[in-house]
Amino acid sequence: GFKLVLQGFRIFTFDFVQWMQDNGVKELSWTKVNKCGLPFANLLVEAIPFLTHLEIPGNGLGDDGLRIVLKAVKANPAMELLDFSDNGLTDEGARLVLEV
Length: 100
Hints:
Number of strands: 4
Helix content: 40-55%
Structural class: alpha/beta
Distance between the termini: 24 Å
Mean pLDDT: 86
């Protein structure tokens, strides 16, 4: 597999997720999508089952988006690295991350 790095790139279609899976993407670093919240979280849920690394700093995910993403992360025992920095998380979001 390989690492896909995107910055400020907005693509919210499940075809993109299928492309990632078909091409063996195992690590995703996607920064500065900014304030995409729940649509971004829902897209990530589709990608998480086949990822080992997920770096999504600076995307305005918020606690609600993080909650959605972490449900999928918990179901993926292959996940090795997570980066949720600079996503507008509160103390509640930090607690959610610690439960993973």
